[in-house]
Amino acid sequence: METIGFFPGCSLEGTAVEYRKSFEAIAPKLGLKLAEIEDWNCCGATAAHNVNHKLSIALPARILALAEKAGHQRLIAPCAACSHRLISARHELAENPGLRKEVQDIIELPYRGEVRVLNILQLLMELGPEKIAAACARKMTGLKVACYYGCLLVRPPKLVQFDDPEAPQSMDKILAALGAKPVEWNFKTECCGGGFSMCRTDLVCKLARDILADASANGAEAFAVACPMCQSNLDLRQRTVNKKYGASFQLPALYLTQWIGLCMNVPPRELGLDQHYIAPQRVVRKAFAVEPKPEAAKDAVAAGVK
Q: Within 10 Å of residue 215's Cβ, how many Cβ atoms?
């Protein structure tokens, strides 16, 4: 089993705890041992780079330095905002030796720039859709899923160097290998307004409405996401969007790791399916078109997937 450095970040400790639970549930089945970085700190997403540039570099640099100290060659940051800040800081420190020296003095740790940062899609694609599918106990039966990448998973392309920044396919390939039917739609990389979630809810609702409308118009029955802010805006705001715009959207937004976990027959509660605002039980039933085994039924009912 391969050991890989793991930076959960603030979101996976709070509002996106189901993301962490589902990732930790599937990792061993994929041959991964997650080694959480000791004494990690906030990476500064999403506002630090707009407030204090040096701080916005020092915060992720400390995380990278701690990962180096622990001997990791690769560091997985499932939150798209976290991986973006870590990748950006790593790039800037490599390009600016003077800043690198200054930041090392600030964090009081040596930094060599040797740890490679991965977001969740990069990690899963390096494992390969075939290996992921082989680790699963069942497949979906053609559920139409809108793979929503948002702003940060494949951008900026110069730094991430992964997938097509305008028409990414990595998540689609993984879901297709699991038996889903990814839909073709127009908003897979459009912004959900994550950085304005609290201060400009009017803008966030409009952006979420546009994303929901396009996904629905193209036949999607649910979303697959890999960003806590994207998931929150599509899940938490959906009822508000319906009320404000007179719509009737009911599209559950599940993390990619939750979809994988369902295919691995991980109990719904262990995947955090009971923590969604838009209940996923209807699409989960349709996704697999089978009744749960008696021993799994109790857990499913407790988790709201019945």
A: 27
- Distance set, CA 272 to CA 22, 253, 263, 268, 277 (Å): 7, 12, 15, 6, 12
CB 9, CB 79: distance < 8 Å: yes
Residue ranges of the domains in the chain?
2-118, 129-302
Q: CA-CA distance, 112 to 219, in Å (whole number)?
A: 48
> Could you read off the pLDDT of 155-190 as tens digits, one per residue?
888 888 899 999 999 999 999 999 999 999 999 999
CATH of domain 2-118: 1.20.1050.140
Residue type, 132: I
Question: What average pLDDT does the segment 71-85 reach?
Answer: 96
Q: What does the alpha-carbon distance between residue 80 and residue 83 come to, in Å, rounded to a whole number? A: 5
Put simply, whether the predicted model's pTM sits higher than 0.85 gets the answer yes
Residue 217: CB atoms within 10 A of its CB come to 11
